[in-house]
Specification:
7-stranded mixed β-sheet, alpha/beta, two-stranded antiparallel sheet, single chain, elongated, about 300 residues
C-alpha cells in the first residue's frame, strides 16, 4: 500500500468524481482508477461503489477513508516536525474562517508568517458547518469561528475576542447614544443575509426588544455590506472586528448599542486528536501572545473617541 493510493482515495471522496479527483492529483483518470483498484486488491475489500459514474464508497471504503486521513495526517505532522528541527517550520497552514471573522484573520496570519518565514498560509472563508466537517476530515489545521457552535465536536477552543455590536449610521442622524435595538429597526437598513450566523444573532436581539428588522438590502458578505454603507443612505449593525479591515466610511459614525452590546465568543479551534497539527499549534502559540481582544477593543475605543471629539 502506497501513500499515493491513499491520496487518490481522499481526493475521490472529496471530489465525488473520478475525472475531477484525477485532475486534483495531477494524474490521468485511468492511473487514479488503477491505483484505487490495486488498493482494493491489496486490502481484499471493495472500496468504491461503481456504476456509470462514482456512486460513493462502500462501508469498508468509508473505514479505509478514515484511516487514509489519519495516515496522511501522521505523514504531514512528521514532515512539519522535521522541518522545525532543521531550523524553521515549513509547509502550508490551512486556516478556515467564518466570513464575519475574516477581517480579523490578518491579526494572526501576519505575525505567524513573520515568525515562520518558511511557512505559507492557505486561508479560506467557510461556513461553520464546513469548518466542522473539514476539521474532522483532516482538511484544515485550525479554524477561526464562533466557539459556542453546537456542531463543533472533539475540538480544543481558544478565545480571541467577544463580538461587540455597533450601529454604523450616516452622520447627521438623530439616533441617540447608546442606541436601542428598537431605534435601529426603524432605520433604513443593510444587513447580512438570514443564513449568516451573525444575522441570526442580531435578529435575536431585535426580537428581545419586541421588534423585527426589515432591511432594504441583504448580502452574504461583509464587503458587500460595506459597499452599500459607503453611499451614505443605509445604516447597519456591525461587529467591532470589522473595523480592523473596513474602518468607518467617510460621512458615517459608529454608535454604541444598548445591552446586549456583546455577542458570542470568537476564537480558534483545533481538532482534539493525535497527531496534532504542528502548524495549527504554531498559530495558537502566536494567538496567545498578540491579544487580539485588546487590539480590537483599542481600535473601537479610538473610533468612539474620535466621534466624541
Amino acid at each position: 500500500m502506497l501513500l499515493r493510493q491513499l491520496e487518490y482515495l481522499v481526493a475521490l471522496a472529496r471530489e465525488r468524481h473520478f475525472a475531477r479527483a484525477a485532475a486534483a492529483c495531477f494524474v490521468s483518470q485511468p492511473s487514479l482508477s488503477a491505483a484505487i483498484r490495486k488498493l482494493e486488491r491489496e486490502l481484499d475489500v471493495p472500496i468504491v461503489l461503481r456504476g456509470h459514474r462514482f456512486e460513493g464508497l462502500t462501508p469498508e471504503g468509508e473505514r479505509v477513508l478514515l484511516w487514509a486521513h489519519r495516515i496522511l495526517a501522521e505523514r504531514d505532522a512528521l514532515w512539519q516536525e522535521l522541518s522545525e528541527m532543521r531550523g524553521g517550520l515549513s509547509g502550508t497552514l490551512r486556516l478556515g474562517t467564518i466570513p464575519t471573522a475574516l477581517s480579523a484573520a490578518s491579526l494572526l496570519t501576519t505575525p505567524f508568517c513573520e515568525r515562520h518565514p518558511l511557512a505559507r498560509v492557505s486561508l479560506e472563508s467557510l461556513s461553520s458547518r464546513e469548518i466542522g466537517h473539514r476539521l474532522a476530515e483532516f482538511e484544515l489545521d485550525v479554524a477561526l469561528t464562533y466557539l459556542d457552535d453546537e456542531e463543533l465536536r472533539h475540538v480544543r477552543r481558544y478565545v480571541l475576542y467577544r463580538e461587540r455590536y455597533l450601529l454604523l449610521t450616516p452622520d447627521g442622524g438623530e439616533t441617540r447614544s447608546p442606541a436601542s435595538w428598537a431605534q435601529v429597526a426603524s432605520l433604513p437598513l443593510c444587513l447580512l443575509s438570514p443564513q449568516m450566523r451573525n444575522r441570526r444573532i442580531v435578529d435575536e436581539y431585535f426580537a428581545a426588544e419586541g421588534v423585527t428588522a426589515t432591511p432594504s438590502v441583504e448580502t452574504d458578505s461583509v464587503a458587500g455590506l460595506y459597499a452599500h454603507l459607503s453611499g451614505g443612505r443605509w445604516s447597519s449593525v456591525i461587529s467591532h472586528a470589522w473595523l480592523h479591515m473596513f474602518g468607518v466610511p467617510e460621512g458615517m459614525r459608529v454608535v454604541p448599542l444598548e445591552c446586549p452590546a456583546h455577542g458570542p465568543r470568537v476564537g480558534l479551534v483545533i481538532a482534539d486528536r493525535s497527531p496534532e497539527s504542528v502548524l495549527g499549534r504554531a498559530l495558537l502559540d502566536v494567538a496567545r501572545q498578540i491579544r487580539v481582544h485588546d487590539t480590537l477593543n483599542s481600535l473601537l475605543d479610538g473610533h468612539l473617541a474620535g466621534r466624541a471629539g
